[in-house]
Amino acid sequence: MNRRFSRVESGADLKDYFDRGDIASRENRWNFEVAWEVANKVGGIYTVIRSKAYVSTEEMGEQLCMMGPYKEQCARTEIEEMEFPRGNPLLDAVNALRSRGYKIHTGRWLVDGNPQLILFDIGSAAWKLDQFKLEMWEKCNIGVPHLDIETNDAIIMGFMIAEFLEEFRNFAISYSQNNELSPPRIVAHFHEWQAGVGLIILRTRLIEIATVFTTHATLLGRYLCAGNTDFYNNLDKFAVDEEAGKRQIYHRYCLERGATHLAHVFTTVSEITGYEAEHLLKRKPDIITPNGLNVKKFSAIHEFQNLHAVAKEKINEFVRGHFYGHIDFDLDKTLYFFIAGRYEFGNKGADIFIESLARLNAMLKHEKPDTTVVAFLIFPTKTNNFNVDSLRGHAVIKQLRDTINNVQQAVGKRMFDTCLKGHIPGPDELLQKDDLVKIKRCMFAMQRDSMPPVTTHNVADDWNDPVLSSIRRCHLFNSVHDRVKMVFHPEFLTSTNPLFGIDYEEFVRGCHLGVFPSYYEPWGYTPAECTVMGIPSVTTNLSGFGCFMQEHISDPKSYGIYIVDRRYIGLENSVQQLSNFMMEFSRLNRRQRIIQRNRTERLSDLLDWRTLGIYYRQARVKALQAVYPDYVDETTLYGSRNNLVFSRPHSEPPSPTSSRHTTPAPSVHGSDDEDSVDEETELKELGIK
Fold first, then answer.
1. How many CA atoms does the CB half-sphere of 48 hold within 13 Å?
2. Contact 534, 304 (CB under 8 A)
3. pLDDT tens-digit profile of 447-504?
4. What is the dihedral angle through the alpha carbons of 254, 255, 258, 263, rounded to the nearest 10 degrees?
5. Domain 303-387+453-604 has CATH 3.40.50.720
6. How far apart are CA 86 and CA 77, in angstroms?
7. CA separation for the pair 6, 2 (Å, rounded)
8. Which keywords appear in this protein's UniProt record, sorted alphabetically (predicted)?
9. How far is the C-alpha of 324 from the C-alpha of 319, rounded, in Å?
């Protein structure tokens, strides 16, 4: 793929423009961000918009306004309703639409940055749906089926937003003339095809507003990959109109493609998605806008290693309960791997993950029989209830702990009383027969004939469930001889979960390796979240995150980013590569894993919105210059971005003796204690001042 068109480099970070909208206000520059998932949690775009809100408001201040649909269930807890101040053109535009019978909610989003919000009640304009569809047909020749409710809602919201922006522009011009300001420069940024309807209407009505359209994943691409298609090798061969028609999404595809071609600037979230858009939407992206994270939320400064140990102990507690009666492995030599996300078995790579675990199981039996890997698969799906055996295990372990604590207190009291009398107590005086009976009862209760379950819930239609079917095929049944143990948890983790009792973030911190061998992943927030928390991860060169890391890190593996090739080699070779990566990680001793976590955590700056937000700014600037040729901005002076390139770590030996090619150097002193690695020594070892 030609990177010339898809990557814009800059020598500046977005934080260089954090003035709370002071410059934008003087330039009379306005930014509107439109998405279906503004204050409406549906999927990954919600995470993008929400996490970016802080840096967006730091840059644009009151010149930024986010727009989306009003969904009462989410809005009730996510927004603080309030009106715009009098004299503000935003208030005038809102009142103009309210006079037409539209219900509009304004206020602030209760997230970091507290951006201004305008949410449109779609039901209040439903009576004009036929009129909107008629205009869409007459101007664009796009017809929408009456029963497609989602597209109907997108059309209503798109027209409401277009009418609002047209009114706002008119009021902003009058306001500028009355207050002797420069003419308003307005840019509207639309995310995904649902919001793209508004962009189409703006352009067909010839309203002078700069537009940016971002696709986070192409609509047709998702459908094609869900059908087990050899997607990337046939991208240039698909008859896109025919394929969209077969899947009854032709009208949606037309809306997405129309927004793509009408936008002044078109962006995608990764180069792999840009390659996909070039063939399916027939336009190359002007700029790649990678997704970032609000790293402050995940940063633990000097404590993230300690937080890993604390969270790992909580996972140990779950493992003790789930595998009760079969704890034949040392928890200090146990590694926790996990995969999580939407339940898209093939797209998320769960198929090759389970197959690779079967091969890892065979390799561990032969090479490192004292090491155990517990693999967690967290995919929400339909369940009947918790697995009774799993719940019983946690109850039995709790009973054993309570019994031992009671015995411990009784023994301590007897020891104190005996010593008080002036002689040393004997074993029979400390541990009495009643205490032994209580302990034996608990131990006998822990015995069981069956093997530990591979799932924590009773999965609905479990015989046809793809994860369970794959586990059965690979014979990963948690037997005594297996070095890889399986735990399928078919719901998202929350702190109220009776089995784990920890939320997703804490669970990630406690694991050793995140494995995400996705086949279709336009970006990939799960490995990115691992990275900012200092947890090594496996990704692929078909995910946006993997491509981004390959581009900006000279040796990703040494920083704890393992990239599986799923694009240029066959499936069998990809499975073998993944199993080899996991085996290499299993060979690391504790000190090596600590050094690797330190390196991984240092990549968090690379994924911070303060770094990546500059690309969104450059997209807006390019759109403004397309509509307002006289507009000049210093971020258009693109230069080299050397601060975004991570070289190979200095502590990486060119020819290691007891370590693999790109693994951290082994301990000189042979110590495996976590406390033996301090920050200064580790920094010195890596050659960093």
1. 26
2. yes
3. 788 899 999 999 998 999 999 999 999 999 999 999 999 999 999 898 888 899 899 9
4. -160
5. no
6. 26
7. 7
8. Glycogen biosynthesis, Glycosyltransferase, Phosphoprotein, Transferase
9. 8
